[in-house]
Structure formats: C-alpha cells, structure tokens
Amino acid sequence: MPRKKQVRSEQTKQDILNAAGRLFAAKGYDAVTMREVAKEAGCSHTAIYIYFGDKEALLHELSIPALTELQLQIEEKVSGKLEPEEALRRISLDFIRFCLIHRNMHHIFFEARSIRVDEAEPELEINRVRNGMFRLLMQAVQQCLNLPEGSGRLLSATRIYFYLLHGIVGTYQLSEESAEDLMDRLLLTFREAIEVLLLGFRAQHAPDK
Amino acid sequence: MPRKKQVRSEQTKQDILNAAGRLFAAKGYDAVTMREVAKEAGCSHTAIYIYFGDKEALLHELSIPALTELQLQIEEKVSGKLEPEEALRRISLDFIRFCLIHRNMHHIFFEARSIRVDEAEPELEINRVRNGMFRLLMQAVQQCLNLPEGSGRLLSATRIYFYLLHGIVGTYQLSEESAEDLMDRLLLTFREAIEVLLLGFRAQHAPDK
DNA sequence: CAGATAAAGTAACCATTGGTTATTTAAAAA
DNA sequence: TTTTTAAATAACCAATGGTTACTTTATCTG
C-alpha cells in the first residue's frame, strides 16, 4: 500500500480546503477564482478539479465540517436540561452567529440551488446535515409550544420561526461589518426579536380571553 | 427639434425594457445575457449599452416603476382609514406578494450592492424609493404600537418586522413555484406569521402581569 | 433636393472565468 | 529498475460582460 503518496495527496487536498476557506471568507465565494485558490494553496488549478470536480463542490465540501459543528451545538441544547424556551433562545443565537460568521456560505444553507439533483448520490452529505438541522429546530419549537408532533400547526410555527431567523441573517448577509461587530451592535435586537416571537406564540396558544 | 428620431429612440428604449422585463422574469437576472435581451428587443446589444450603460443599470431602471407602484399601494394603506393593525396586515401581504412576483429583482431590494456608491448622483432614484418605503413601514408599525417616533424601540420593532418580511420572501426567492401558487399555498402561514408578530408586540408592550 | 446629423447595426475585439485535456515531470512503490 | 501515480504545465474552449471603430440608414434642416 502506498503511504507517502497518500499523505501527500491528503495534504494537497487540505491545502486547497484551507486556502479556499480563507479566500471565500475574505472575499466571498463569487469574487474568488479557482486560479486564486490554487495559487494560495500552492498547487495548480487543475489539481483542484481533480479533487473537487468544480467550484461549487469545493464550497460544498468546505461547508460540511462547519455545519456539522453547528448541528452538534444545537443538538446539545435540544436534548439538554434547559427549559424549552431558554433552549430555543440559545439555539437561535447559535444559528444566527453561525450564519453571520459563515456568510460566504449563505447560499449553501438557504438556496435551493445547492441541492444538486444531478448528483449521483441523492443523499448528499450536506442535505443530510441540513435536514437534520431542520428537524432539530422543529423539535425545539415543539418542546416550547407543546404542539403535537407532525401537526400542521407545528409545521407552520416552525416555518414562522425559520422565517425570522432567515430574515435576520439575510439582512446582514452582505454587510461589511464583521460577525462580531454585528453581534455586538444587534444582539439586543436579535434577542428581542426572538422574545417577541415567543410571546406571540404563547399568546396565540393561550388566547387572552 | 427632431420628432421621429426622438420617438424611435424612445421606442427602442422601451423595447429593451420590455424584453429585459420578460426575460429576467422568466429566466432570472443572472441567466439572461445582454445579447439575448438585444435579440428579444429586436436591436443590437450595443444599443443597450448606449441606453443603459451596463447590465445592472438596466435592471435598475427596470425596477423603478414597479417599486413606485408598490410604494403607492402602501402609501394608500398607511394614510387610509383602516385601523392600524389591519393596515399593517395588508401592507405586509402587499409587500410579500410584490416580492414574490418580482423575485428576479430580489437583490435590488435587499442587497446592499445595489446601492451604487460610484454613481455620479448619490441620490439615485431607486434609493429614494427604497428609503421612502422603509419610512412607510416604520410609520405603519408606529401607528400599531403607539411608540414615540424616532425612539429606539420603534426602530427595533420595525427591524424585527422587517426581518420577518425579509425572511418570508427570501425563503421562496429561488422557488420554482409561481407567485400565485405560493400565495395560494402559504397565505395562511403568512397571515399567521404576521399575526404572531402582532400578538408578540402587543404582549411586549402590555406585559401580562 | 442635398448635405448634415444622429440612431442603430455590424463586426471585431478584449479580459475574465469556469472548466477541460493532453503531455510531461518527479517522486514513490513494486 | 521499472512501473505507478500525484501533480505541474500549458494550451485550449466557450460563455460572458463590456468596448470600440466603422458603416448604414432614416430623419432633419438648409
């Protein structure tokens, strides 16, 4: 079995991923060319095509570890010992922070385009992760509102909750401010937004009259 | 003064706008080439550059009449005789419907990029319209919540309201479904989302204890 | 009617980009 | 030593937005 070759190959792949990660984060996906990534990674651009097929696949592969980590964070809070509303609050902020940090991947998380129907394997890793995450969000909403699982009301409540999160991160997707600055400046607004939604849901399910 | 020349010139410009409108709506901004627009408009692609400068400027100019009409719709409801909450409800649905119909212009309304700082006139028509619209939204929120004008609470409430709208239209930005189908399928959810937010705001300003 | 004017077409061109395809080089494996 | 194989090199392709020089044609004006 080869060993040094394997290692070298793996190293090149990692170099590419690192370079792409840096560049995408710094300049945004669209503004980065494959030749640039190659230069930064210290390899030829053809090597990238050997390992990743095309540009979007590169971004794809790049996004999986980050997404998986987020999923873990959320999982902890869903199955943890927090009271449901507190869990939902924290999950929301985790999600927002994550999306602001990884703004360059925005379209991977939110645009249907990134679901590659032309793929050999229909169960693309990223879709598994994404679906898992949506299920987690729904679970968190369910525990908050005590709605029957699988009910239409739960689905629409989760949708509404998702709209808000989506709108928040979408609003700042192209902002020049760093994720940190945005969180500093707007954390209170984000909190308030979540709180208003929770209040609204509560009022909806326990009408005031 | 020339007359027939002027008319012809105007006609060409209109043909281009019409063609671009059709194509952008059908295939999306990115997927349409300038040569395509020219072909559809029955002119050469250089003519487009004469009239509009570049592709984005074409989309820009195309979006202004539509936006102005939306602004009118909203204005009516803000200054009309509806009770404030009903006005906000209708404005929200107007806004959502408009954004779903004009999905191809999504990035004009929501992406900072479309604010061209490199423009000779800093007061670009579209920015005037857009700012006017935001002021209207804030006014509608203000009349609902009775918050002092110019207060931080009003600003953050409007932001939250905007997040929700932004999230709703963003979620379906790339959907293949027609605006009509989406409205049919999701109108109740949209209404519920607005209702939840209103309930939440109300609960927030009149705490239940 | 004749010449000036301006709208628009034609066609060539440019740079950039994502992507592909030989062919070669060099190091590691057999 | 011979064979693999990772990877570089370099050339190429097609599409795209955008530009420019030159020409045609319809209209306006004297």
TrEMBL record, chains A, B:
<keyword id="KW-0804">Transcription</keyword>
<dbReference type="InterPro" id="IPR050109">
    <property type="entry name" value="HTH-type_TetR-like_transc_reg"/>
</dbReference>
<dbReference type="GO" id="GO:0000976">
    <property type="term" value="F:transcription cis-regulatory region binding"/>
</dbReference>
<feature type="domain" description="HTH tetR-type">
    <location>
        <begin position="10"/>
        <end position="70"/>
    </location>
</feature>
<dbReference type="Pfam" id="PF00440">
    <property type="entry name" value="TetR_N"/>
</dbReference>
<keyword id="KW-0238">DNA-binding</keyword>
<dbReference type="GO" id="GO:0003700">
    <property type="term" value="F:DNA-binding transcription factor activity"/>
</dbReference>
<keyword id="KW-0805">Transcription regulation</keyword>
<protein>
    <submittedName>
        <fullName>AcrR family transcriptional regulator</fullName>
    </submittedName>
</protein>
<feature type="DNA-binding region" description="H-T-H motif">
    <location>
        <begin position="33"/>
        <end position="52"/>
    </location>
</feature>
<dbReference type="InterPro" id="IPR009057">
    <property type="entry name" value="Homeodomain-like_sf"/>
</dbReference>
<dbReference type="InterPro" id="IPR001647">
    <property type="entry name" value="HTH_TetR"/>
</dbReference>
